[in-house]
Amino acid sequence: MKVLMINGSPHKEGNTYIALKEMEQIFQKEGIETEILHIGNKAVRGCIGCRTCGEKGRCVFDDCVNEDAKKFEACDGLVIGTPVYYASANGTLISYLDRLFYSTPFDKTMKVGATVAVARRGGITATFDELNKYFTISGMPVASGQYWNGVHGQMSGEAAGDREGLQGMRTLARNMAFLMRSIELGKKQYGLPEKEPFDRMNFIR
After folding, report:
1. What does each C-alpha distance from 38 to 16, 29, 68 come to in angstroms?
2. Which residue from 23, 54, 76, 118 has the least number of CB within 10 angstroms?
3. Cα dihedral 26, 28, 30, 34 in deg (nearest 10)
4. In sequence order, which residues have a C-beta less than 8 Å from that of residue 121 and are 6 or more positions away?
5. Closest Cα partner for 14 from 157, 174, 165, 167?
6. Are 105 and 198 in contact (CB under 8 A)?
7. What is the rounded distance in angstroms from the CA atom of residue 28 to the CA atom of residue 175?
8. H or E, element range at 124
9. Maximum distance among all Cα pairs of the chain, rounded to whole angstroms
10. C-alpha 83: how far from chain center
11. Domain 2-190 class, CATH top level
């Protein structure tokens, strides 16, 4: 099994990285392969709603979004980590996720998702809710931990001192590993849930 981890911080090995690495060590103990992608410092433009991806199966902007799409398709779980800016995720990360989720045509049903937010003090729960919506719109179960999945720290390295936050990361990783394995067993015995054709309806006609 494999978990893809997205580091949405502009700082490659800052506090968000510390939180993701705490999860990674648990995944490795569980025999689960991991890969951390650092995208927070990349020049990623937002979706322009051109819908070219619906025809070509990939985003019209050929950058890291298209490069990472195959890794997303191949993984069993996705962890999104971000610093908190104004009670929201890093803008680069949001642009990346909008395009990654919208432009990829493959079925994401039952891939397990988890969100990690890192802040000096506040805004973690708002960011946590914001990012979980990518999973719930895609049929992806959301892994939970022992509290809202957040770690605190402002200056680089301070997150290492948040014992409760890091314990939450370890709990989240264990729960995510269990959920992925349980889903894999369920798929073997029962298959994926039946899907009806999507009945798209606009509210204004």
Report:
1. 10, 23, 11
2. 54
3. 100
4. 152
5. 157
6. no
7. 14
8. helix 124-136
9. 55
10. 13
11. alpha beta
